[in-house]
Amino acid sequence: FQFTGYLALSSILFYGSNLISQGLLTYGELSSFCLYAVLSAGSLSAMSGFYLELMKGLGASSRLFELKDRLPRIPLEGGIKKGNVEKAIRFEHVAFGYEDRDPLFHNISFDVPAGKITAVVGSSGSGKSTIASLLLRLYDPTNGRILVDDVDLKDLDPSYWRHHIGTVGQEPVLFSTTIKNNIVYGSNEPEKVTEADIVSAAEKSNADEFIMQFPDKYDTNVGEHGSTLSGGQKQRIAIARALVNKPNILIMDEATSALDASSEYLVRIALNKLLENSHQTVMIIAHRLSTIKHADQIVVVDKGSVAEKGSYEELIAIPDGIFRKLVEKQTFGFKNEESY
Ligand SMILES: Nc1ncnc2c1ncn2[C@@H]1O[C@H](COP(=O)(O)OP(=O)(O)OP(=O)(O)O)[C@@H](O)[C@H]1O
């Protein structure tokens, strides 16, 4: 493009000087023409860039509008909004399968007692995360029901229900904004969250200490997807985000599985500290079985149903138990893989 520009300019100068020598053009007219030619060329080249950006914008916005027009399978609102949801949750003969897939569960039944810690374990793909999705009512069971304080989850207002739940996923999603905003994002009423609420949530999740070491403290920008933080730091901010709402129910989906050993240790300390002082109903979807020794109840999911239920000590004592084999596999590595 630059070469063509130079070529055009030299042609203009050549023909322009010919016209000047014939008295058909003045020097002033030639220099004005050159100046305008350069300015117009610059504007035209900028327009091609603008056109590209415009096309990109149109493509992105059409995808956004498509997303906006999509209707959720489960409506966001409508149904019972009842007092404080704080009693037990019950999975009653729940059957479920994803669309176009074989059925995943044929009979899942267990209680999640209020104010206690329930851990759900099982081999990879057994459906642990799906249990959390069903509890969040992202899907409805094909059979059976989930009861919350003796009310069918299908009859509760979904948004109202979800406001009672704090979730910490396997891979936390952080936004390119400050730590403070990322924590407040978890609140149902962001305008009511005070500085003290933010700090208290960060202290509970063991995040306050590393946040205070940053020059901008809670105003530090975490970058795109939290790129300026380590995995463990992101996870602890995600835990603070789940806590800022003071939820009655906390779901932690394998909060430590995506971390290396030292980050996992820090997150585990945060979780243990949190659980020790917790009066919430907690469901941990766990892979690292060492994290759930203190759980009040462990539910082992296998082949579409609940295979075992009990405390860590009770389950580990079953000689050929599934839980025992899972623990052995994690403790002694892959030597015992064939046994499960
Ligand atoms: N949205 C989905 N659509 C279709 N199938 C899905 C979907 N989510 C999960 N599955 C399938 O359901 C099964 C159970 O998945 P799920 O994530 O619940 O298992 P998991 O026990 O949590 O596994 P892991 O421990 O490996 O995370 C898997 O076979 C998975 O491929």
TrEMBL record:
It holds the Pfam family ABC_tran. One of its GO terms (cellular component) is mitochondrial inner membrane. Residues 1-56 form the ABC transmembrane type-1 domain. It comes from the Eukaryota. It is a multi-pass membrane protein. One of its GO terms (molecular function) is ABC-type oligopeptide transporter activity. Its main location: membrane. InterPro entries: AAA+_ATPase, ABC1_TM_dom, ABC1_TM_sf, ABC_transporter-like_ATP-bd, ABC_transporter-like_CS, P-loop_NTPase, Type_1_exporter. Residues 89-328 form the ABC transporter domain. It is found in: Membrane. One of its GO terms (biological process) is oligopeptide export from mitochondrion. This is ABC transporter domain-containing protein. Keywords: ATP-binding, Membrane, Nucleotide-binding, Transmembrane, Transmembrane helix, Transport. It comes from Caenorhabditis japonica. PROSITE patterns: ABC_TM1F, ABC_TRANSPORTER_1, ABC_TRANSPORTER_2. Gene3D superfamilies: ABC transporter type 1, transmembrane domain (1.20.1560.10), P-loop containing nucleotide triphosphate hydrolases (3.40.50.300).
